[in-house]
Amino acid sequence: MYIGGTDKHGYHHLLREVLDNSIDEVMNGHASWIEVQLDPDYQGVTITDDGRGIPVKKMKKQNKPAVEVILTTLHAGGKFGGSEGYEVSGGLHGVGSSVVNALSSELTVYIARDGYEWSQKYSRGNVKSTLKRGAATKKTGTSVHFRPDTQIFGDAMKFDPAWAKDLLDAKAYLNAELTIHYVDPTAQEDLTFKHPGGIHEFLPKLIVEKNGRMLHDQAFVLERDEYPKIQVILAWTDSTDEVVKSYANGVRTGDGGSHENGLKQAVVKAVRSYMEAKKRSPKGLTLSAEDIREGMVSVLSLYIKEPQFQGQTKGRLNNPEATALVENAVRPALTDWLLTNGSMADRICDRAELAARARQASRSAAKEVHRKGAVSHRLNLPGKLADCSSTNPGNSELFIVEGDSAGGSAKQGRDRKTQAVLPLRGKVLNVEQATISKVLENKELGNIISALGTGIGPKFELQRLRYDRVILLMDADSDGHHITTLLLTFFARHFPELIEAGHVYLAQPPLYRIDAGKETHWAIDDAERDRIIKGLAKNVKPEISRFKGLGEMPAEDLKQTTLDPKRRRVLRVSMDSEASETIGGLMGKDASVRYEFIMQRAAEAKADELDL
């Protein structure tokens, strides 16, 4: 409930909770230095700051030291007020530290405060030692070492160094006065994150990551220190993406929220005001909010009292007043900036008009595709589609198959009543780097659009989907994986509604057939093959067959292993913001992102898995 799950996101959220406690000290002027050190096995971390130190005095009501109450009791955090309460913090739930403690097999807190060093140990939320007073010291601060509980998260879960470095780098951008020290003893990395320019340095980094180019000489900047504290920097680029990195009280709000809505409204209203003042509204062309914001890259950081996050994982800010707070601060300032910098403002307006014309052209192309789409289940379908006889989408499936050969086997092995097969020829277009017009011109993607029947773009209608399940069926080799990735990019960018509604699946065809006596086993990869062989009786000598492709698999085998709903294995595709960013990095124009991804994982690759 508090960390969003026991997957890697929940696991890493524990680190963020403890780090945010140190960041709160920084935001309120009590600290300027933080160190994050990973354990050698990446299953634990130590986070240290030079803040005031968690209070250690005994609380009369509980008859326990304050630090023990904070770490073992929900809603007992140190952010609720009093002489040491925070003006603003990353959240007022008061559960972060106690939840981290409850979900850790071991947690040790070290405190420098009140003239002495203090320490106490915990395990799974329980106290393992009394609060011990150590040597005298003039320093202050807190250090927390914890290891998430393997009984909850599993033995294989580890902290991702790349994720940790990205998080720390972003925190340093948002807090110009902060120095963050990062230590990874295994990789022998000792890094310092320090950005005195704050968000002024953050924006160029984001633009480079998106492989874009600023269209004007200077970025718009708003920094307001009085309450509510707001930091905004934005610029328009030649990229088609709209990028908003929003933060609330130093916490990344990846799902946006009311403050992000306020920024977007302010930008649209300011640009419209400028266009009206300069009488340059285009005739016969309607600019939408998306047209105006296309290519915009921005960073928004808002600090308010009593933030209302959606869930303890704090992915979205829900404070309704934040929309007006941000809009009322940004809109007049941005309007003045546009009027003062006319040449730059004109480039921004030209950019918006260009986006509107492109969108208008794509709408016309989408209408044409939609017009050709079938109203019933049987009309105007692509020639290579072997459709099913059922006209009830609720029990129908579409298999998108790699190549005519595999398509032939699939057509023979399918249930003709409920299963349709659409073979593709070669690798489809990478839509991450293509305009909508290029997508619509691509024959293979056009066949998929026609087969789905939903239309594309503004005219998309989910209720017109012809099949309840769209299943990607590719060879279990590197080419097949590449085609699957290209198709997933296509669905993620142009049919995200299908993914959100749970209509997109990945088939899991076997790579091996293992005949052992009268028994036949199927393995989707080398690891499963080895497990099956290891489980066979010692006196049985298995015969192992490896399929080079789906086209070589007999239709009956394909039916038994991959097509039959009662016996097959399929994976439902889901999408979150992290997956979307990964697609953008690995499929986008910036080759350096892919290079870094490959170099970080080169040691994991096996020779027999590479196409040499």
Architecture of the domain at 8-193, CATH level 2? 2-Layer Sandwich
CATH top level label of the domain at 8-193: Alpha Beta
Low-confidence segments, given as residue ranges, are: 78-83, 90-94, 367-379
What helical percentage do the residues reach? 25-40%
| Quaternary structure state of the chains depicted | single chain
Biggest pleated sheet: 9 strands, mixed
Determine the number of helices (DSSP H or I, runs of at least 4 residues): 19
Global geometry: flat
* Integer-rounded radius of gyration: 28 Å
Share of β-strand residues: 15-25%
**Class from helix and strand fractions:** alpha+beta
From the 3D structure, determine the CATH topology of the domain at 8-193.
Heat Shock Protein 90
Look at the structure and name the CATH superfamily of the domain at 8-193: Histidine kinase-like ATPase, C-terminal domain
Mean pLDDT: 86
What is the β-strand count?
A: 24
Q: Give the termini distance in whole angstroms.
A: 47 Å
Structure description:
There is one protein chain. The protein has 612 residues and is α+β, with helices and mostly antiparallel strands. Among the domains are: 8-193, Histidine kinase-like ATPase, C-terminal domain (Heat Shock Protein 90); 199-360, Ribosomal Protein S5, domain 2. Helix content is 37%, strand content 21%. The strands form five sheets. Strands 1, 2, 5, 6, 7, 8, 9, 10 and 11 form a nine-stranded mixed beta sheet that branches. A five-stranded mixed beta sheet has the order 12-13-16-14-15, with helices on both faces. The longest helix has 31 residues, at 342-372. The protein is flat, with a radius of gyration of 28 Å. The model is unreliable at 78-83, 90-94 and 367-379 (pLDDT under 50).
